[in-house]
Amino acid sequence: MLDNIKSRLDTELWIVILLIGLILCFMGNQVFLKSLFVFGFLALALPGYLVGNQTYGLPGGIFGLFAGGILGGILFISLYQVGLFMLGLLVGGAIGLILSGEILLPAVLGILTGIAFVVFSGEFIIFGTALIGSYIVCESLFALLLPGWTVSPGMVFSFKLIIFVLGMLFQIGIQSKH
With 0-12 CB in 10 A as exposed, 13-18 as middle and 19+ as buried, what is 46? Predict the structure, then answer.
């Protein structure tokens, strides 16, 4: 019975992750500021929890989680350029992880794409949200549809590339209508 409940929770969690990936991949430019808030929330929620938990125990940790998260979200939106850089850092890191399992390539690509996102923000917002979204969509689909299977790297890369291109084209199409 416990395994059935755990499996159901895993499935529901993967469905939520899939929906988030689809929104980022196909609507990323339209939800960018909300995404910045979420990225900022995630960036400072854990440090807030750790500081609050260490000082006041679990209630302080929960308060610190929300206070740090909300502060991070507001900070990322207020410091738009920092948010763009952080998104670029995530995108470059994701590309680096796809290309290599080493730490140096994701770090270098993250910094370079972070700078590029600040300089060419409009184009890179579409690029970055489609890339991150396609990665999330593919990983969640594989987890939902092929649990426990070993999938060839070529198939994974091809699927991510197809979803990425479709997401970019969709976002460009929506942007050209506005």
Answer: middle
